[in-house]
Amino acid sequence: MSEEMKIPKSLLEQILEITLAELEKHEEFDEHTVRLLRESSSHGRLTKQQIIKAIKEGSEVKP
Amino acid sequence: MRLLELEIKNVRGICDLTIKPNGKNFVAWGPNGSGKSALVDAIDFLLTGRISRLMGKGTRGITFSEHGPHIDHQPKDAIVRALIKLHGLNEPVRIERCMENAALLKFDGSAKKYINPILLVAQRGQHVLTRREILRFVTSEAGTRAQQIQELMDIEDIETVRKTLVTVQNEFEKELEVQRGGVNRAKGEVTATAQIKVFSEGLILEYVNQNRVLLGGTPVSTLKPENLKIELNPPVTMATEPKINIGLLEKDIQNLCNVTSEDNKKGIAEGDRQLRTILASIRSNPELSRAIARMQLTQLGMSLIDENGSCPLCDKAWPPSELRGYLEKRIEMAQDTLKKQNNIAKLSENITGSVTGTLASLKKVIELTRILNLEKELSTLQSWCVDLESLADVMVSVVDKYPDTRFSPERIKQLLAPDDVSELMTKVNETAKAKYQETTPGQSAWDTLTRLQVNLEGLKKAESSFDKARLSYKKASLFHDSFMLARDFILGKLYDSIRDRFVDMYRQLHGIDEQDFTAKIEPEEAGLNFEVDFYGRGTHPPHALHSEGHQDSMGLCLYLALAEHLTKDLIDLVILDDVVMSVDANHRREVCRLLRTYFSDRQFLITTHDRTWANQLRSEGIADKKGTIEFYNWHVDTGPMVAYEVDMWERIEADLKRNNIPDAAARLRRGSEQFFSEVCDALQARVTYNLNTQWELGDWLPAAMEQYRNLLKLAKAVANSWGDESGVEILKELDSVRAQVYTRSGVEQWVVNASVHYNNWADFLEKDFRPVVEAFHDLYNLFLCVNCGGMLRLTMSDKKPENLRCDCGKVNLNLVSKTK
């Protein structure tokens, strides 16, 4: 393990990373929504309330 | 991370214990209840701050603070300390955790960045395999076995997120339905006011302009709420009671009367009939719905078929052009279903328009009826309104909910109206006319535009909410779909690598018997599909056809494959807590080889209640004597007694120095019984069978020597057949040594009745017994490799001797003659 060694990503973290990178490519997802989802997923469990809040906030303004 | 030292104070069944694995494999053995598993609990606690065994199913009433410390001790007294070696750090690190503050691991802060990743992986529990877990692997139902594997892989949280995303998607779908219903109702308000059957901007605009002309205005070209009364002046005479406009209400009453007109009924009945027919045809064939869902993928697949015609997704071979034909058929089926879906949309739009328009007029008339105090009529109309609201809800998701059993075709065709709706409307109309004065055409036009303006504003708002809901639903669907694709990609990759390693290890464990063994480990729906090959007869669930012993070894191989992948480069320590219960002796030896050859870079801590297995672990070189301890005589006040395996020769030497020949003799006998039983097993020597299954040195030793002599004789004959003269000379020398050592050790004496020669030796002096000990030492060495220390072993091929060799290959005697 070197100095640069980071905490290994769990399988869920790896999956969410790919998922969010994919969502960024879709025009339906604005930067704000993806940022909110990314923040929520990095703070532990991604809850229903967090996802709904992020999606609803992003849907207030049409992309 | 490797464990160098471990100190346990007052944890579970242990009062005070220090062990020093020094980074090497370590074996703790002892009978059940001797405190071995407490050793595992202590390491588990040290790394995670919890004890897995005290958590989960079947642990109700067990608390960490009460049952974590040794009995009668407080959490503050329960401490585990360790000296560990970490990758990237030259100096070992001391870590310590106390049950009083279980969340806190004490260590030198400078090691934080090295320790944190380890703690994270340990939290996932992937460093300990207990018998409880392996039993869960092998004895669980097919459905829950996958669940057990998922738990071990800590992918339950992935499933939790998947379920959350499905819930979110469903919630947004419901919201979308609600908003779609809102748009339908808002459109109904507009169509009711404009007295048209189906919402049409052109017709509404025409209606607006007719009313504008009546008010002396000019036509407008766009239908916007703010445009309806632009540049118009209100009529000069305003109604005394502006809320009641008889002219407008008459239009609503007329709308309701029209519901039962023959034309209307005919139109609705025909739409209802067609809708029911199409929906029934789709529901009778689930393939149709699936065909639509897969159409995009199918089209993509078609574009990717190459010249050899095999499936671009799974590589399955297809006869030329057959796959293309099959996919074309599926697309055709999907297109046919799409046409049907379009028809459903069109038919339901017509019925929905009539339902929501009628509902809008009905609500206005109900308001009027209430003002007119027509109680009986009010009750009938309210009941109709409730039914119509229900039908409007059904129309929002026609494919799922239509037709509703509450509403027969007979009732649908007149939009659930009461049969006497005409008489009822006449009564309301006449009562209203008697009470309120007629409105002027100008007033009616003005009020119509006002109402339409409100209706259109409502529609605009409803459409805006619908757009937001649709966007949210699309986002939720994209999130879910992207997550599933990413999940299948990541887990698929993981499962593939684990499957390959698992198959490889299982083949190694079962040798030639399972050389063609294969397995399937793949994501399936929300879970994981795990099936194994049964002797080339296809794959089946592991418990379907394989024996319990095979299932046990599968569990072990699968765990090792998983743990290897998930703890790679972080935790070298793998704890196996009593995991080879049902594995037979032959396969246990293979387990040893597996651990040695596949996991030479790992440190194993193995507990067992089985002395034979503990000895096997030593004789197979998994652990040395310093890495083996025995737990015994556990007592509630003291915990277990612990004995390190001290070298037998050192102990005998100590006895000799004290001139304690009886002890030395007894020790030599017991040790030799164990050693030569293992030699007989390794050389496949023939031992005379006893019905009482009790054998002693007099049985083992001659059998081992006889087999060794025979094998040397065979090796010599083989060397001659190959013309290997130097080999023959070496074998002659070996045989000569064998004979000398045999004579020196006085093997025959040991064969005599044990108690007789035991007593004889008891009378020996140190100078008499020492040569016997030295001879036995040499006797042992006949069967051990000077290089690797491993025991020589006979290997067979097709039930014939193949060679006599050690694990490192330094000793390797060919036993297969040259064919003539």
Question: Short summary of the structure?
Answer:
Chain A is 60% helix and 0% strand. Chain A is an all-alpha fold.
CATH topology of the domain at 2-127 and 569-644 in chain B: Rossmann fold
Low-confidence stretches of chain A: 1-5
Can you identify the CATH class of the domain at 2-127 and 569-644 in chain B? Answer: Alpha Beta
Distance between the termini of chain A: 44 Å
Structural class of chain A: mainly alpha
Number of strands of chain B: 17
Care to describe what's here?
The complex is a heterodimer of chains A (63) and B (820). Chain A is an all-alpha fold. Chain A has one domain. Chain A is 60% helix and 0% strand. Chain A is globular. Chain A starts with 10 loop residues before the first helix and ends with a helix. Chain B contains 27 helices and 17 strands. In chain B, the strands form four sheets. Chain B has a six-stranded mixed β-sheet, sandwiched between helices. Chain B has a five-stranded antiparallel β-sheet with strand order 2-1-4-5-6, with helices on one face. Chain B has 820 residues and is α+β, with helices and mostly antiparallel strands. Among the domains of chain B are: 2-127 and 569-644, Rossmann fold (3-Layer(aba) Sandwich), CATH 3.40.50; 240-439, no CATH class; 648-814, no CATH class.
Feature tags:
heterodimer, A: 63 residues, mainly alpha, B: 820 residues, alpha+beta, Rossmann fold, 6-stranded mixed β-sheet, 5-stranded antiparallel β-sheet
Layout of secondary structure:
The complex is a heterodimer of chains A (63) and B (820).
Chain A: H1 11-24, H2 31-42, H3 48-59
Chain B: E1 2-11, E2 14-19, E3 26-29, H1 36-48, H2 64-67, E4 79-85, E5 93-98, E6 105-107, H3 112-123, E7 128-130, H4 131-139, H5 142-152, H6 156-194, H7 201-214, H8 246-258, H9 262-283, H10 286-304, H11 322-371, H12 375-396, H13 398-401, H14 409-413, H15 421-435, H16 441-510, E8 519-524, E9 527-533, E10 539-540, H17 542-545, H18 548-566, E11 573-577, H19 585-598, E12 603-608, H20 611-619, E13 628-635, E14 639-644, H21 648-657, H22 661-683, H23 697-721, H24 725-745, H25 747-751, H26 754-762, H27 766-782, E15 793-797, E16 800-805, E17 812-814
Parallel strand pairs in B: 3-12, 3-13, 7-11, 11-12
Antiparallel strand pairs in B: 1-2, 1-4, 4-5, 5-6, 8-9, 9-10, 13-14, 15-16, 16-17
Helix pairs in contact in B: 4-5, 4-18, 6-11, 6-12, 6-16, 7-16, 8-11, 8-15, 9-11, 10-11, 11-12, 16-18, 16-19, 21-22, 21-27, 22-23, 22-26, 22-27, 23-24, 24-27
